[in-house]
Structures are given as C-alpha cells and as structure tokens.
TrEMBL record:
<feature type="domain" description="Ribosome recycling factor">
    <location>
        <begin position="24"/>
        <end position="186"/>
    </location>
</feature>
<keyword id="KW-0963">Cytoplasm</keyword>
<protein>
    <recommendedName>
        <fullName>Ribosome-recycling factor</fullName>
    </recommendedName>
</protein>
<keyword id="KW-0175">Coiled coil</keyword>
<dbReference type="InterPro" id="IPR002661">
    <property type="entry name" value="Ribosome_recyc_fac"/>
</dbReference>
<dbReference type="InterPro" id="IPR036191">
    <property type="entry name" value="RRF_sf"/>
</dbReference>
<dbReference type="GO" id="GO:0005829">
    <property type="term" value="C:cytosol"/>
</dbReference>
<dbReference type="InterPro" id="IPR023584">
    <property type="entry name" value="Ribosome_recyc_fac_dom"/>
</dbReference>
<dbReference type="Pfam" id="PF01765">
    <property type="entry name" value="RRF"/>
</dbReference>
<dbReference type="GO" id="GO:0002184">
    <property type="term" value="P:cytoplasmic translational termination"/>
</dbReference>
<comment type="function">
    <text>Responsible for the release of ribosomes from messenger RNA at the termination of protein biosynthesis. May increase the efficiency of translation by recycling ribosomes from one round of translation to another.</text>
</comment>
<keyword id="KW-0648">Protein biosynthesis</keyword>
<feature type="coiled-coil region">
    <location>
        <begin position="149"/>
        <end position="176"/>
    </location>
</feature>
<dbReference type="GO" id="GO:0043023">
    <property type="term" value="F:ribosomal large subunit binding"/>
</dbReference>
<comment type="similarity">
    <text>Belongs to the RRF family.</text>
</comment>
Length: 188
C-alpha cells in the first residue's frame, strides 16, 4: 500500500483539534475577572431529570448589576440541585436562595481568588490537552490499521510524524492560550 492509497484525514483531525481549542476558549470566557457575566455559568451542568443539563436550560440567567448574577429556576424541585451544582463548580461563589431565585454575588477578586482562578484555568487547559492527545491516539490507530493492511514502514512513519506535528502545534496553542488567560486573571 503506498501513500497515495492511504490518506489519513488530517482535515478531520485538524477540525477536531480546533474544536478542543474552541471549547477551551469557551471555558476560559466563563472565568470572569471580577465582573458578573451569564457566560460564567456555561460550563456548569446540573443532574436534572436523569441527565446533565446546562443551568440556562433550567432557569433564566440574568445580570442585574455588575457584581451579581441571578438564576430564576423554573422548576421548584430543581432549586436545590442547581444550588448544589453551583457550590461544587469551583467558581468560588456562594449562592444565596430567595424562593426560586438563586443570587450569586460576585466577590471582588483578591490575590487568593485570582490564584484559585488560575488553577481552574489550568484544569481547563489540561482537559483540552487530554482531548488533543486522544485525537492523536485516534490518528495513530488509523495508521496502525493501515500498517496491518501493508502500509509501508516509511509511509507509516510519514503519517505518524504528521500526526505528532499537529499534536505538538495544538498543545503549544493550549499552553499559549492558558498563559494569556492566567496573565489576564492576575492583572489587578
């Protein structure tokens, strides 16, 4: 089997790695630097009706003032589950209940809180790296299968190098994105 016969779908791998970077940027957008924003709740999911559901599908999310987010939960039975998900989210915000409305006062960012947020950003980046490595493994598995069908060693090496090069490029992009976000968080 020659290189012409086996074509690794690098466009697909690129598209999927771009997806991992997009997800990371979306998660980073949720890490606000001291200002309230509805997007900060996007990564949080609640175990509702037997499946993990985004908060914005369980209630109305509002930002009535610069340091406050409110969630008007539609189903009274879900209020405690939404509150629990918020407490366990790692956002470091203490939800306050007022009937079916959950208020989230956004604390002023002190040094300790900034450090916590940079750790959360680091966790998000690690999830992105793991996704990219999993995609690398998928690509390598495709090459292995082609090798079993008589793909030459030279051709296999060529494709393995391609996949590794893409992986390195995207891991570097994750690291650069993380570094920029951490600098943004630590800026006073």
């Amino acid at each position: 089997m020659s290189t012409e016969e086996f074509m690794l779908d690098t466009d697909d791998l690129t598209r999927r790695m771009d997806g991992a970077i997009h997800s990371l940027r979306t998660e980073f957008a949720s890490l606000r630097t001291g200002r309230a924003a509805a997007s900060m709740l996007e990564p949080i999911h609640v175990d509702a009706y037997g499946q993990m559901t985004p908060i914005n599908q369980l209630g109305t999310v509002n930002v009535p003032e610069p340091r406050m987010v409110t969630i008007n939960v539609w189903d009274k039975a879900m209020v405690s589950k939404v509150e629990k998900a918020l407490r366990e989210s790692g956002l470091g915000i203490n939800p306050q209940l007022n009937g079916t409305i959950i208020m989230l006062p956004i604390p002023e960012l002190n040094e300790e809180r900034r450090r916590e947020l940079t750790k959360v950003a680091g966790q998000y980046a690690e999830h992105a790296r793991v996704s990219i490595r999993n995609l690398r493994r998928d690509g390598m598995d495709q090459i292995k299968k082609a090798k079993a069908k008589n793909l030459s060693e030279d051709d296999a090496k060529f494709w393995e190098d391609e996949v590794q090069e893409m992986t390195d490029k995207y891991i570097k992009l994750v690291d650069q994105t993380l570094e920029a976000k951490q600098q943004e968080i630590m800026q006073v």
